Amino acid sequence: MVIYMCGIVGYTGSNEAAPILLDGLETLAYRGYDSAGIAVFDGSEIVMRKEKGQLSVLEELLAKEPVTGSCGIGHTRWATHGEPSYINSHPHGDSKKQLVLVHNGIIENYVKLKRMLIEKGCVFVSDTDTEVVAQLLGDIYDGDPIAAIVRAMQFIEGSFALAILFRDDPERLYCVAKDSPMVVGFGKDGAHIASDIPAMLAYTRDVTFMGEKQIAVLSPDGIAFYDKHGMPIDKGSTHITWDLDAAKKGSYEHFMMKEICEEPVAFRKTADQYVSFRNRRLKADSFPWGESDAHDLKRIRIIGCGTAYHAGMLGKRYFSELAKIPAEIEIASEFRYSGYTFEEGEALIVISQSGETADTIAALRMAKEAGVRTIAVCNVVGSTIAREADEVLFTYAGPEIAVAATKSYLTQAVVLFLTAMRLGEIRGTVSAERAAELIDKLSDIPDRMQKLLDDRGEIQFFASREFNAKHVFFIGRGIDSALSMEAALKLKEVSYIHSEAYPAGELKHGTIALIEEGVLVVGIITQHALAAKTASNLEEVRVRGAKVLALTNGNQGDLESHCSKVWHLPETDDLLVPFLAIIPMQLFAYYMAVQKGCSVDKPRNLAKSVTVE
Ligand code: F6R
């Protein structure tokens, strides 16, 4: 099976299409980078250029063989199965050469459809499910694009965002989406399609999110919308206030470093939405639960994938500790098939930076079907999760382009922390004095983050000596265990170094067998009550030959004598320390990857938005 999480762009207007399409694809390259292609109507024909490899390969091809024309579509692809190849690259067309299209998503019944279409005489040239849609549309098409799209949707099972160029309607683009993100927008020089907002931000700030099976027809003069039956509908637009520079690398070598350096601002911006620092109070109206319903809450179930899941691990601790509410955390892809039956009084919090992660969306829908209250912690306005959840606690991280999540984790964590605090306030488990104390300490966090960023040279130096490490283990207890999970994920995904996280006490139940001379073990020791225990675990690995690095705060005992290196964090409350502790871990992963010459912003095999399960 071939599955995709790709980036789509489209443009029709008064300018040359190719440069606009390439510009958009460059912004979307985080969604996939196995191959790229464009198709442009040149006045008499639809001309296609596509190539296996990163976008630069397509750019080189276009420099040699340019295409002119002001209406076109483009695609950057990520495939997990089936070779990335010229043949499988998008755009794809039909045998009768009536149309070409680009696709993001997965057509689940493509084998059955392909068989049917072959019997009808279609000749397939690729292994993709996308070509099945192109052939199906070509088979149905009789001069009415909207009717053909409506009819084709009745056959297709699965998820799709499609941008289509019909040969006999060369100034217009057609697009349609189901369970796959897509936005359209109209700027001063024409109309645009993209999988994600940043790709069109240079041309327009007023964007419309495509709803389930809705169709948009883009022409140089405007955009018309239709429902899944082909009936005209009105759709409003959302004004995007992000700064375009936020989606550009500027003077930074990598987006990952830029985004780590943005953490103090992202953290402050997010916290400001939920806290009045001047009044030392939470903004009660910013939270889903109020005086009337917080007491009825029996349990919180938190769902996410990857880094968002790790932020949820912190959330679980915050809800238990601050609000004394039982909280469970589960990985979305496991939860959706767990057959879980929700209980009365339970609420579901889904965490997602993109708001488009397929498994997280599925978990959200399960809860909604069960009548459970759903709350999203999400960074992208208008995303599927933001639209479908009952309530949204937005993070204000701005666009996150590097595949490795950094600033989104911190902003998710602070939103969860503040929500737990608000519940604790209402339920009487956090006193007014404690709340004010935490808010004061929270307001110091961005400056302390900045200090860590300013001192990053030490981490860079350490990485320059350790980047040949083959295995790195991260250990910690409680909150530090949750931090270890994220630290290990960051390191492995950008530097390809095998890294694992363990609750420190668990090590000697098996994993310690892997410790031998020179293996690097990172101990995260920030929780005063547990510090001595993790320090002992570090000593256990040190005497077995491990090289030991500790990340710690305040006075946590004589770590210097056990460890090859100790990194000190600025002092803060134990509950707030994750907001600081993760930064050196992200920097460590970054510098290790840079030293190894890895593709930091686009690690192999990964894509930013995991829109398929
Ligand atoms: C890791 C990373 C992924 C994402 C995960 C969820 O650095 O970025 O693990 O955290 O794919 O993505 P969202 O938050 O968009 O649902």
What's the helix and strand layout?
Blueprint: E1 7-13, H1 17-28, E2 35-41, E3 46-52, H2 55-64, E4 71-77, E5 92-93, E6 99-107, H3 110-119, H4 130-140, H5 145-155, E7 158-166, E8 173-178, E9 183-187, E10 190-194, E11 206-209, E12 215-219, E13 222-226, E14 232-233, E15 238-239, H6 255-261, H7 263-274, E16 275-276, E17 281-282, E18 299-304, H8 306-322, E19 327-331, H9 332-335, E20 346-352, H10 358-369, E21 373-378, H11 384-388, E22 391-394, H12 407-427, H13 432-454, H14 457-466, E23 471-476, H15 479-495, E24 498-503, E25 520-525, H16 531-542, E26 547-553, H17 559-562, E27 565-569, H18 578-596
Parallel strand pairs: 18-19, 18-20, 20-21, 21-22, 23-24, 23-25, 25-26, 26-27
Antiparallel strand pairs: 1-4, 1-10, 2-3, 2-4, 5-6, 6-7, 7-8, 8-12, 9-10, 9-11, 11-15, 12-13, 13-14, 16-17
Helix pairs in contact: 3-4, 4-5, 7-12, 7-13, 8-12, 8-15, 13-18, 14-18, 15-18
Bound molecules: fructose -6-phosphate (F6R).
Task: Describe it.
- The protein is α/β, with parallel strands linked by helices and 613 residues long.
- Helix content is 35%, strand content 23%.
- It is built from 18 helices and 27 strands.
- The protein has an 8-stranded antiparallel beta sheet, with helices on one face. The chain has a 7-stranded antiparallel beta sheet with strand order 5-6-7-8-12-13-14. A 5-stranded parallel beta sheet has the order 19-18-20-21-22, with helices on both faces.
- Helix 3 (110-119) packs across helix 4 (130-140), helix 4 (130-140) packs across helix 5 and helix 8 (306-322) runs parallel beside helix 12 (407-427).
- The longest helix has 23 residues, at 432-454.
- The protein is globular.
- Residues 305-308, 352-354, 357, 360, 404-405, 489, 493, 610 line the site of fructose -6-phosphate.
